[in-house]
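Form P-L/3: holo structure prediction, ligand pyridoxal-5'-phosphate.
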Amino acid sequence: MSSDPHAGNVRGFETRAIHLGRDFVSDTGAVTPPVWLTSTFEYGNPNGFDYTRSGNPNFRLLDRTVASLEGAAFSTCFGSGVSAITAVVSTLKSGDVVVAEENLYGCTFRLFAQVFAKFGVSVVYLDFTDPASLEALASHTPALVWIESPTNPNLKVLDIAAVAEAAHAAGAPLLVDNTFASSYVQRPIELGADLSLISLTKYANGHSDALAGAVCTNSEEWNAKMIFAQKALGLQPAPMDCWLVSRGLKTLSIRMERHNANALTFAEFLERETDAVAVRYPFLPSHPQYEIAKRQMRGGSGIVTVDFGRNLAETQAFLGRLTLFPKAESLGGVESLCCHPASMTHASVPKERREAVGITDSLVRFSVGIETVEDLIADVRAALAKS
Ligand SMILES: *Cc1c(COP(=O)(O)O)cnc(C)c1O
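OUTPUT (holo model):
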């Protein structure tokens, strides 16, 4: 097979997902590549490997597949999504300003506030669904614009092409955290983003058994910075985790199709048949950015956020009665999970800030898995009925 990462792009998504991760097989014919559990490589080998912190065949196979599925020229893999975030922010310098969407992943917020602030990198948070924010962008002279879409946990959908245009007019590159959508559902680089960051831990791997992250780009300069950060900051993944994510990616499309279908059915049930105050799902016509979602996403992905309008104790009691939704952080696995953002994923965000961006005590986030959807619905129905 060709080692040119672009060569496979003429083929379909599923074909690339399954075939691009096979290489280095000439001596054995192995259909599934092994895990290269080696810290170092003999000097002068034909593929130029030297030390696993700066490269390993498992990284290379994963990057080739991720870049292709993301529609990007390059991908650099990292030990986690947070390592990927660290790699990007490490390219900034003291005095730089990042303009970010206000409903940002909790650990990204914490990294900026508790680590990078000490190094002089500051962040201005804006609501990117408000057109005034796009107009105000240039006035902050950003070094980087940082968004997620859909956002966590409010599932705001941001118009990536429009934000890319505004960022570029302000002279700044745009980073999109594409974790919630996955490469199957949305491709930020094709919509004009400069960097697409993915926590591969979630949908890409899909089985909740490994951690990894990646940064994808078409820019050789950004790619060189990411490769440098991987080795210089020690942000590399483990070969075994790369192997697991490479395997997970082979079924990304069929898993996402089921996540899309199950989550839509689940969201429709919550909206029609329960007394929920608000149900958020990008592909529900009631979603405020439904039209944008339809335009830039292939399906609504698997996360549904709902506000049952109950107090903290009642909300937690309801979650405790569910039997098919373990209460756990993370998302995007084949199994369903539920999460209480205010006390879990966003506990590191100060309460006033949380409430200001709509993360109330009554908010619940479901990661809808690929189980039989009627069973998921029955479980929620029973847990609501007992209250
Ligand atoms: C989980 C997550 C991350 C961080 O990824 P890890 O692999 O857990 O380090 C970043 N962004 C989003 C949107 C996430 O959901």
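COMMENT: DSSP finds 14 helices and eleven strands in the chain.
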